[in-house]
Design goal:
About 50% of the residues lie in helices and about 10% in strands. It has a six-stranded parallel sheet with strand order 3-2-1-4-5-6, with helices on both faces. It has a three-stranded mixed sheet with strand order 7-8-9, with helices on one face. The relative contact order is 0.11. By secondary structure, it is an alpha/beta fold. The protein has twelve helices and nine strands. It binds NADP nicotinamide-adenine-dinucleotide phosphate (NAP). The site of NADP nicotinamide-adenine-dinucleotide phosphate has 26 residues, from helix 1 and strand 7.
Length: about 300
């Protein structure tokens, strides 16, 4: 394909930026990809991996002359990074981000946005529990959703150009209002992560058990929780601190439902439990019918789980 952008700059070189670079290179979506990271260690790793065409020593030099700048740092660092690159952005450049929370990122970035630079916030709904420059792979976004939350004054031609770039990475693009994005993600991703962290924490408190039975007999449910609970602590701290209202809302509803089920168990109300689980089973069927997961038993892992199933 012909390149969608001439020069793309990636700020942060972890799982998401690494995967963007590899996917964009494979698709020929950019003529030049230049990346940078905060630490010399990550920059050196990215150079060794030849993750980008060039690794800059700082964000200011990375964004100079770039047509598209993608902020790939934790949600809480977006404003600081934007303030650093602000004086070096080319007029007409597009800045986007990949943060898992949208409204807070918009609030952090907008005060630093130069008048002739476009900001089109985004979020790829694709990831793994791995992080850092070694974790990226070109297929991460294939057939996954990538949500854009354009601002009311976003230039439609720049939005469609960014969509073309994202589609070249293999993803499906849809637009969403930022507040709605944050609520949807609180339900589908943020609160489930918190529950996984909590369940693994509960098992850890039962130290004696953890050392023996919990690990040895780790069945699918708990094993999946441990995978999710291995996700990057900085990224997830920032998600909860920056999507506070939506997560607390969903967590409140979750707690109410938990009490309902707790009471049904205490009262021996098998009918209520059966009805509840029948409804939730139908939701799982809906997800499979929508092509968002496989109906293979145990998520298609087979007897030994492997990296192919790490998403
Ligand atoms: P990652 O692998 O941990 O990489 C994060 C990068 O950001 C690293 O290069 C790191 O630099 C840099 N960084 C960390 N703190 C920083 C700070 N305070 N200032 C400047 N740079 C900083 O993270 P990731 O998984 O790629 O996530 C990046 C973004 O994508 C996050 O906003 C996250 O919410 C979003 N996202 C993640 C997933 C997922 O599943 N992982 C999915 C969708 C969206 P050093 O290595 O030099 O420390």
């Amino acid at each position: 394909m012909s390149a969608v952008y001439d020069k793309v700059a990636l700020i942060g070189l972890g799982l998401i930026a690494g995967s963007i670079s590899l996917a964009a290179r494979k698709a020929g979506a950019a003529n030049k990809i230049i990346g940078t990271a905060r630490s010399a260690k990550t920059r050196a790793a990215a150079r060794n991996l030849m993750l980008c065409d060039e690794i800059a020593d700082n964000a200011a030099s990375a964004v100079r002359g770039a047509d598209l700048v993608i902020l790939c740092v934790p949600v809480g660092a977006m404003g600081k990074v934007m303030s650093e690159i602000k004086p070096h952005l080319k007029p007409g450049a597009v800045v986007t981000d990949v943060g898992s929370v949208k409204q807070e990122v918009i609030d952090q970035v907008l005060p630093h946005l130069p008048p002739q630079v476009h900001f089109i916030p985004g979020h790829p709904l694709a990831g793994t529990e791995q992080s850092g420059p070694y974790s990226g792979f070109a297929e991460l976004f294939v057939n996954r959703w990538w949500l854009l939350t354009p601002l009311p004054d976003s230039d439609p031609s720049e939005v469609s150009r960014l969509r073309r770039f994202i589609r070249a990475l293999g993803a499906n693009v849809e637009d969403m209002e930022p507040g709605h994005h944050d609520l949807v993600l609180a339900v589908t991703s943020h609160t489930p992560h918190l529950i996984a962290y909590t369940m693994v924490g509960v098992a850890d408190h039962l130290k004696r058990v953890t050392e023996s039975e919990v690990i040895k007999y780790s069945a699918a449910g708990f094993r999946d929780f441990t995978r999710i609970a291995a996700s990057d602590p900085t990224m997830w701290r920032d998600v909860f601190l920056n999507n506070k209202d939506a997560v607390l809302d969903i967590l409140g509803r979750f707690t109410e439902e938990l009490f309902v089920l707790q009471r049904a168990i205490r009262m021996g109300d098998g009918e209520q439990l059966h009805d509840y689980f029948t409804r939730t089973r139908a939701i799982r069927r809906g997800i499979i019918e929508a092509g968002q997961d496989t109906d293979a038993p145990d998520f298609g892992r087979g007897p030994k789980s492997g990296p192919a199933n790490r998403d």
